[in-house]
Structure formats: structure tokens, C-alpha cells
Specification:
The radius of gyration is 22 Å and the shape is globular. It is about 10% helix and about 35% strand. The chain has 4 helices and 33 strands.
Length: about 525
């Protein structure tokens, strides 16, 4: 069925189809033309915008309306946006209309949790197939309500009781309407689990080949214990996440020194099936490279990346791979967001360059992703005030990361006069914590950031910090036009259901209802403080 999309003044997008007329304000998907967008070089100097930016770049952001913690984001081949977690760590928020509306989704079979910050949830997309994968750490005592969800014991005892041991992977190929669960809740895996999907190595290498799915899925986590490790163990799926088997440990080379378990980060799969695992150790930062599906590794140093100075370092190496197999390394050092590039499978790396927005400080919790060759984008918190305790969210994007220097485009994706993020340490390390945020490209090349909006301090001692999911993207008005058009052509999106909360009785529904009430009150106060009705 044919559609026509026209950009009108004041960012109103009109959609027309035979027998119907629909008008959707771009504000419905959170676009703010008034928020400044700056083109700049790595030295921080502003430059003319990219030549291809004929349709003006705008910053867009919406909230999910649901409490959250450690956030990630993924977009399916059909354009469904998944934000993890939402309401509890048992559910995700899903939008079928580019972020205009959100509903909750939940696998039918899963181990529930009543606590925040216990499952380290992560959602990703296999960009070749569009399938969504969501991973949770599990725990053998997490379903014991007297010990955990209704425990009379003071924190952090219930969290300790709910220690991580094992994992579950949930996957969907139909935008979250149905889910498949792979249950490995008794495996020797701890926390900080990360999931990635990609192609298998060529059959000529002798590597095992997938069956019933066009690629492999890897889950890597601290093993055999949470937090303490002392190593990382990766499991591999040859059938699209239905079953998993151990692939091998990521054992450090002698020059790496001590590699704290929490100093690793998300592994990536290259375009040729090579598996890359970033490791930040006391002897340097490395990328462990496996060409045999996680069986053995060769370690290559990333010379200018920071070393690990504690079991929970604040600056660790993250990596991403574009569709041509180029690798990118990212970290925070000296209040700067740094990027380096490898064109030879992690063997050598370029001189690192600063890529954050001009004039920002206190860069924290960065996440990034790569798409087409040279297309890389970053999400992070920062402030133009070097002493601020409340930070704004930023997105920086480049389409020529392989150039020297790359041309960058950056924007705050909230009104900087009203910062959205306050670290949990400011509130005496209250829960839920946001230990990481999410970043992903969709199939059209739009970059999405899954962030956390902290609505204020805990309302009382021991109460949760009120939060809501915050989803942002940096796009041209042409991209925004396409987002609305895609939403209009999605039958499910045209009748998106309101937020319907799944049955979370097993996860302490009374406490969750109280948290939701606090969240709603905080959100109303926040909107009124910003002049909204």
C-alpha cells in the first residue's frame, strides 16, 4: 500500500494513504529542532556540517515511562525498539512506532527477580537477521520469597542471597510477540554476562557450522563466581539461541597481569566470524581474538587504553565492529572520550582521538556501536560544568571514523538546563543503579541510545531512586520522516496497546506497585518543574 510523507513547517509530518489521512507531530517521537547540534573535529573546534546533511540533523528523545536500571537497547529488522529493563528486570519496554508509545513485553518462561541490579540484563540485535536476544544472569535462590522478595533482612543481604549462578537467553524473531527461552540456570556462570551474535567462520577453517540459523550466538560471563570470577567463560550457540555449550575460557597472557572480571566488556563478532573480547588488565588493555569460535585466543594490546587499577575499574575498554570488519576501541581517559581504530583484526591500532562534544566534562557511562564502514556513534553523560553533579545525555556520531581526522556531529539529547542523570553515588549508592547504558544502530542506519533519566533523590531512606527509561537518537529530518512512515506501515503500531503490566507477583508486586507510584509522582513533579502540564 503506497504512502506519501511530507515535511511540513514546525516539524509536522503528514502521512497519507488511500482512504485514510493521518497527521503525526514529530514531537510525538521526541524530536527537538531547538536543541543545538554541533559539527566538530576531534580537537573540539566547530566546523561546517557534513555535506550530506541537507536535511537538518535534529536530536530526538522520549521516555518509556517505566522505572529502569542498567540499560541497553536494540531494534529489530521490523523497526521494533526494545529498551531493557522496564518496570522490573523481568520486562522490557517495546515501541512499534518509533518511540511515540511504549508497551511492556516479557518472555513466557523466565526466572523472575524481585530485586534491581541482580541480573545484568542486556538486549542485542543480530544485525544480519534482525533477531532479538535478551540475556539474564540467574540464581538458584532467587525464587525464595522469604529470603529475597519478602525478606525481613536489611540490604544488601537479600542481594547476596540472590547470587548469580547461570544464565537464560530469550530470543524473538517476531518483534516480541513470541519468545524462546534457553535455560542454563545451573551452569558455572556468574554475573556481568554479555551477549553477541554474528556469522560463523568459513566452513573451510574447520569451524563448527550453525544449523537452522544463519550465525552464532555467544554469551560470556564471569566464571565460575559472580564479581570475583576469576575468569571469563564463553558459551556458544549454533542454532540461533535454542541451545548453548561451553566454548572456552578467556585466559590472560602472562604480560596482561591481573584481569579483574568486571573489567571485561561486551564481545563482538566480526564480519568473518572472528570473536573479539575486550579485556582491561593491570598490565594493559587487550583484545582477545579467537578464530575458532571461542576455543583459543590470541591477545593483542591496545596501547593507549587505560589499565585496570581495581576490581571495578571506572575506565574500561569497549569495542565495536562495523560491517566490513573494522574494529573500534573506546574508553574514557582524562575527562575525554577516546576512539581508536584497527583495520587488521586488532593487531595494530591508530592513535586515539577525543570524540566527545566540544566543551564537555565528566564524561561517564559511555556506550557505542558501529554499522556501515566508518559509521560509529556514541552515547554518554557529560556536562559543560566541570563541577556539576547532575549530567546531561549526549550523542556523538561520525560517518567517517576511518578518516583522519573524522568529522563528528554531537548534541545534548535533553535540555542541558535540566540535566537528567545523577550518579547513584550522590544518593549514597541507592538502587536501582545504572552501571551501563546501551547503544545500537537499526537496519536503516539510525543510531539509538538507551539511557536512564534519574527523576530525583529517593523519597525516603531505603527507597528506590525514581528513574525512567530514556531513549534518544540523532537523525536528520529525513530519517525522522522515515521513522514516522515506518510506524504508519506497521499494523501493530497503529493500534499500539497502552502499557500493560505483566503479572509480577513472583517478583514482589506490592513493592513494585509502590515503586511505580513513587515514579509517577516524581515524573509529574519533573514535568511541572519544566513548565509542562
Amino acid at each position: 500500500m503506497a504512502f506519501a510523507a511530507v515535511l511540513l513547517p514546525c516539524c509536522v509530518l503528514a502521512l497519507a494513504r488511500p482512504g485514510a489521512a493521518t497527521t503525526l507531530d514529530a514531537a510525538a517521537i521526541g524530536c527537538h529542532p531547538e536543541w543545538p547540534v554541533t559539527a566538530h573535529n576531534p580537537d573540539g573546534h566547530a566546523v561546517p556540517p557534513p555535506a550530506h546533511d541537507a536535511h537538518r540533523t535534529v536530536a530526538c528523545a522520549v521516555t518509556t515511562g517505566q522505572e529502569t536500571s542498567e540499560s541497553t537497547i536494540a531494534v529489530s529488522a521490523g523497526g521494533a525498539v526494545f529498551y531493557s529493563p522496564a518496570h522490573t528486570e523481568n520486562t522490557m519496554a517495546r515501541s512499534l512506532d518509533g518511540g511515540a508509545t511504549w508497551s511492556l513485553v516479557q518472555p513466557a518462561t523466565m526466572q523472575m527477580t524481585a530485586l534491581w541490579n541482580t541480573v545484568d540484563p542486556q538486549v542485542v540485535t543480530d544485525r544480519r537477521t534482525g533477531r532479538i536476544f535478551w540475556v539474564h544472569a540467574t540464581g538458584q535462590l532467587r525464587t525464595a520469597p522469604v529470603l529475597v522478595s519478602n525478606s525481613p533482612l536489611p540490604p544488601p543481604i537479600p542481594t547476596i542471597v540472590a547470587y548469580a549462578s547461570g544464565f537464560q537467553v530469550y530470543s524473538t524473531a517476531d518483534d516480541g510477540h513470541t519468545w524462546r527461552t534457553a535455560d542454563y540456570s545451573n551452569s558455572p556462570m556468574g554475573d556481568w554476562e554479555k551477549i553477541a551474535a554474528g556469522p560463523a567462520p568459513d566452513a573451510g577453517t574447520g569451524a563448527a557450522q550453525p544449523s537452522g540459523y544463519r550465525g552464532l550466538v555467544y554469551v560470556c560471563a564471569n566464571s565460575p563466581f559472580e564479581v570475583s570470577g576469576p575468569s571469563r567463560l564463553c558459551w556458544r550457540s549454533l542454532d540461533g539461541g535454542t541451545t548453548f555449550a561451553p566454548a572456552g575460557y578467556v585466559l590472560p597472557v602472562t604480560t596482561a597481569g591481573i584481569c579483574p572480571p568486571l573489567a571485561s566488556n561486551t564481545q563482538v563478532v566480526g564480519s568473518d566470524g572472528t570473536l573479539y573480547v575486550p579485556m582491561t588488565c593491570s598490565g594493559g588493555a587487550y583484545v582477545a581474538v579467537s578464530t575458532d569460535e571461542g576455543g583459543t585466543y590470541t591477545w593483542y594490546p591496545v596501547p593507549s587504553a587505560p589499565v585496570a587499577s581495581s576490581i571495578t575499574p571506572t575506565a574500561v575498554l569497549q569495542i565495536a565492529a562495523d560491517s566490513a570488519g573494522n574494529l573500534y576501541g573506546m574508553w574514557v581517559a582524562n575527562d575525554q572520550l577516546m576512539l581508536t581504530v584497527s583495520r587488521d583484526h586488532a593487531r595494530t591500532w591508530s592513535t586515539a582521538q577525543s570524540v566527545a562534544a566540544p566543551g564537555v566534562h565528566q564524561v561517564t557511562l559511555p556506550a557505542f556501536a558501529a554499522d556501515a564502514p566508518g559509521h560509529v556513534a556514541f552515547a554518554y553523560y557529560a556536562s559543560s560544568d566541570g563541577s556539576a553533579t547532575a549530567l546531561s545525555a549526549y550523542i556523538t556520531r561520525t560517518d567517517d571514523a576511518l578518516a583522519s581526522p573524522p568529522l563528528l556531529v554531537s548534541a545534548a539529547v535533553n535540555d542541558p538546563r535540566h540535566p537528567i542523570y545523577t550518579p547513584s553515588s550522590v544518593f549514597a549508592n541507592s538502587h536501582p543503579r545504572a552501571d551501563y547504558v546501551g547503544a545500537a544502530f537499526d537496519s536503516r542506519g539510525t543510531f539509538w541510545a538507551g539511557l536512564v533519566d534519574v527523576l530525583g533523590p529517593p523519597p525516603s531512606s531505603g527507597a528506590d531512586t525514581p528513574t525512567t527509561g530514556y531513549v534518544a537518537h540523532l537523525a536528520s529530518m529525513q530519517d525522522t520522516d522515515a521513522t514516522v512512515q515506518a510506524a504508519a506501515t506497521n499494523p501493530a503500531a497503529t493500534a499500539a496497546a497502552p502499557l500493560a503490566l505483566p503479572n509480577t507477583a513472583a517478583a514482589g508486586s506490592t513493592a513494585l506497585a509502590a515503586s511505580a507510584a513513587v515514579l509517577t509522582a516524581a515524573w509529574v513533579r519533573r514535568r511541572r518543574s519544566r513548565g509542562a502540564p
